[in-house]
Write a structure and sequence with these properties.
single chain, 410 residues, mainly alpha
């Protein structure tokens, strides 16, 4: 590979690091509902999702071409610009993962690329028509379309279930369907999201003079992007899985099947059309639609509101960080080194903070303290009733280990 400089190698490694964070950040999109309803065990679910993400990376390059050829003017873009864009995207991914919010990795990448490009070449280097038609409009339309489809599908599922009598065999069928639809979402995620990293690496190779303008992603780029997102998916973004599976609403197998099928359909259709769609927006909208589709179902709007705020901040926040990073890299090699050290240090700090409250496959479905803990705490502070029943009441409270209950004392 001619002209493969040190800065280009740094950009490629950073892009694959972003792809890795994209994988564990977005695992919830495919597997949160499957895990929360018990259709699959957590570790099995993320392993299945990882394999299908890898397969999906090889199915299309349309979204990659949208990023590498359409969003910004690839002539005049330096590799340092793309490095700065990735810094903004990675830090936003890690911050939202830390607080368990399912924001869009896609829009973090888009925001970073836009901010760094504007800082380097001005507003004119961003193709506004592509931004509006293939990024912003799908961002608004995707959750609405997926949500409406999931709501109607959920109502249909329960209507069919009433006619069938709601047997155990039908519930097993919905669980099996949920596993299949989760696999479809994983495949769609690899088809859509892995391509974004392919596109950004291809753009860097063009900027560095290694590839000719308007080139498609080379095979090694496709393979490395697929492997990186698969590894990140297998790691499992358990904090976001908890929010998506339990924080937004409580789902039954019928709802999980409806949500995932609706989201997968929207994602695959957008990939075919080359829309840089947010899988997070699609799946979140579908989960909320499924929650509203069941009679008595609820959506926890406090969680949803936090999520909407994060969605609105994603593009500008990533753009601002990327623009600052691009400004620093403009000072030369030492500026690029400073940005790289800042990225590594910030990432390590976020990871260290996350260890204070570990969420993993063992507690991903827990939303509150176990009932026994609450009951014991209440018993400890509740005074016994007055009168002859006092001793009988005291006998119902377990004594500390090694001591007999009051009724056993002589």
């Amino acid at each position: 590979m001619e002209n493969f400089s040190l800065i280009l190698a740094i950009v490629v490694i950073t892009a694959l690091a972003f792809d890795f964070t994209n994988g564990f950040h977005d695992t919830a999109n495919a597997m949160a509902t499957t895990i929360s309803t018990g259709a699959l065990k957590p570790k099995v679910a993320v392993a299945m999702s990882a394999v299908l993400n890898l397969v999906g990376a090889f199915l299309s390059v349309e979204v990659a071409n949208t990023i590498s050829k359409g969003l910004v003017d690839e002539t005049g873009i330096r590799p340092e610009v793309i490095f700065a864009a990735l810094v903004g995207a990675i830090l936003w991914n890690l911050l939202t993962w830390l607080v368990g919010l399912p924001s869009s990795s896609s829009h973090a990448l888009m925001g970073g690329l836009i901010g760094a490009t504007i800082a380097s070449a001005g507003v004119g280097a961003v193709h506004g028509d592509v931004l509006v038609t293939k990024v912003l409009i799908p961002a608004i339309a995707a959750p609405l379309v997926a949500g409406l489809a999931a709501l109607l599908a959920t109502k249909l599922m329960y209507s069919m279930g009433k006619k069938a009598g709601g047997s155990k065999s039908s519930e097993k069928g919905y669980r099996a369907g949920q596993i299949a639809s989760a696999g479809l979402v994983s495949l769609a995620h690899g088809t859509n999201d892995a391509q974004k990293t392919m596109g950004i690496i291809t753009l860097a190779l063009v900027a560095g003079g290694t590839l000719a303008p308007d080139s498609d992603p080379p095979m090694w780029v496709i393979l490395s992007a697929g492997v990186a997102i698969a590894l990140g998916t297998y790691l499992g973004g358990w904090r976001i899985i908890r929010t998506m599976g339990k924080g937004l609403t409580d789902l039954q197998p019928q709802q999980g099947f409806a949500a995932q099928t609706s989201a997968a359909t929207v994602i695959l259709a957008s990939s075919h059309l080359g829309f840089s769609l947010s899988t997070t927006h699609s799946v979140s909208g579908a989960v909320m639609g499924a929650g509203l589709g069941r009679k008595g179902g609820v959506v926890r709007w406090s969680t949803a509101t936090r999520m909407f705020v994060a969605w609105g901040l994603t593009l500008p926040a990533a753009a601002l960080v990327a623009a600052l990073a691009e400004w620093v890299t403009g000072f030369g090699s030492w500026g690029t080194a400073v940005v790289a050290v800042f990225l590594v240090g910030s990432s390590a700090a976020i990871w260290k903070v996350s260890r204070r409250e570990v969420v993993d496959h063992t507690n991903v479905n827990e939303t509150e303290e176990p009932a026994g803990v609450v009951t014991t705490a209440m018993a400890a502070v509740t005074p016994p009733p007055a009168g002859p029943a006092t001793e009988e009441f005291a006998a119902t409270i377990p004594a500390p280990s090694g001591e007999p209950t009051p009724s056993a004392r002589v």
